[in-house]
Each structure stands twice: as C-alpha cells, then as structure tokens.
Amino acid sequence: MLRNVRYFSLVVSATTALVLTGCSKAEDSEAEIAASPTATPAGSYATDPATGETSAILTEAGGAVTKMRSGEKVPVKLPAGFTLFPGAQVVTSTHVDRDGGSSSVLVMDSEAEPGTMADFYREQAEAAGVNVEVVISAGGGETIAGRSSDGLRFSFHARRDTAMTRGELSLAEPQS
Predict the structure, then answer these.
(1) Are residues 94 and 167 in the same domain?
(2) Vertex 129, ends 126 and 130: CA angle to 5°?
(3) Which residues are CB-neighbours of 167 under 8 A, at least 6 positions away?
(4) pLDDT (tens digit, 9 = 90+) per residue, 24-79?
(5) What is the 3-class SS of the chain, one letter each residue?
(6) Which CATH number belongs to the domain containing residue 114 in this structure?
(7) pLDDT at 9 over 80
(8) PROSITE patterns this protein is in (predicted)?
(9) What is the C-alpha separation between 93 and 74, in angstroms, rounded?
C-alpha cells in the first residue's frame, strides 16, 4: 500500500537512520521522482500488509536517490565475507542504498552466548580488513566496532535477554 506523505522519518536502527522527507503522488514512478526539477525532496513509502515489509525511496533535489527495504522476509544482503550467524533466525533485515554506498542492519536471535556471536563477527570483520577498535563487555552484552582502511564501517552488539541472544550487525560500505 503506497502512502502519500509530506514529511516522515524512519529510524533504521540505533546506529543507522534514514530520514525521508518530501511528497509524491501515488502515481509518480521512480523515474519521474528522480527527474523532478523541484527543490524539495520527493519520496514514497510503502508497507506490505501481508509481510510487514517496508520500502521507501527518496530523491533529493540534487538527484541523489536513497532506497530502503526492511522486514523479516527481506533477503539478507551483506558485504562479501559477512554471513548470518550459524543457526540464527532473522528478526529483521534492513538494506539502504544511496549514491553507490550501502548500509545493512541485520537483527537476529540465537541460542548462542553473546561472546560466541561477537567472536564470530570479529573474525569476519578482521578478515575483511576491519580494525576492531571498540570492544565492550558489560551487563551481559558484547559490543564490537571498527572501520577498514577502505571505509567499511562495522559494529555488532549482542545481549542475552532470556533463553535467546539478540544480535545486531551493522555494516556500511562507502560510495564506490
């Protein structure tokens, strides 16, 4: 279902936010929005009632296009070398593309301990050239974060709530 909007914002995650503003008519195509000479950003927002998937597109006055998809059934799209933790269940997968750069936020549940999940993602990050600079173990949670020399930003946080551990992997690749 496509919704007309004048102003809206959508928080992608605690570390990745996408603010969408503007307006568009339901019949505006992506190409029409991108070609619009207006000084006001134009965007559209849709939620699939059957799956709960949310998608949004924003075209800025300068022509930059941002596209976002988020939901439990959205295909996991991670940079090379990163994978879903073995046996984990996807809670939500969010992917944002903008001007050649992209970011992904993957929220998952696992029976594994937070430290085990953090070790798994630290190994993948280091293999991808990420210098892990932040390591925090506190309150039953584990947080690691860093950046590679080519600009890949990485963070992972896991916390055990009950019998499950909730993990959040955030990755942002720079523009190509």
Answers:
(1) yes
(2) 65
(3) 85, 88, 107, 108, 109, 110, 114, 117, 121, 156, 157, 158
(4) 333 444 555 445 444 466 888 899 998 889 999 998 888 888 999 999 999 998 99
(5) CEECCCECCECCCCCCCECCECCCCCCCCHHHHHHCCCCCCEEEEEECCCCCCEEEEEECCCCCEEEEEEECCCCCCCCCCCCCCCCCEEEEEEEEEECCEEEEEEEEEECCCHHHHHHHHHHHHHHCCEEEEEEEEECCEEEEEEEECCCCEEEEEEEECCCCEEEEEEEEECCC
(6) 3.30.160
(7) no
(8) PROKAR_LIPOPROTEIN
(9) 6
Give the tokens for residue 143: 């947080």
Tell me how far CA of residue 148 lies from CA of 98, 129, 132, 169, in angstroms: 20, 5, 9, 16
65 and 102: one domain? no
Domain span at residue 32? 1-69
User: At which of 41, 69, 97 does a domain end?
Assistant: 69
Give the end of a domain, one of 20, 45, 69: 69
pLDDT value for 20: 25
Phi, psi for 36 (deg, rounded to 5): -65, 130
Q: Which residues contact 128 (CB under 8 A, 6 or more apart)?
A: 79, 80, 81, 82, 148, 152, 154
Same domain, residue pair 64 and 88: no
DSSP β-bridge partners for residue 33: none
Same domain for 81 and 59, yes or no, is no
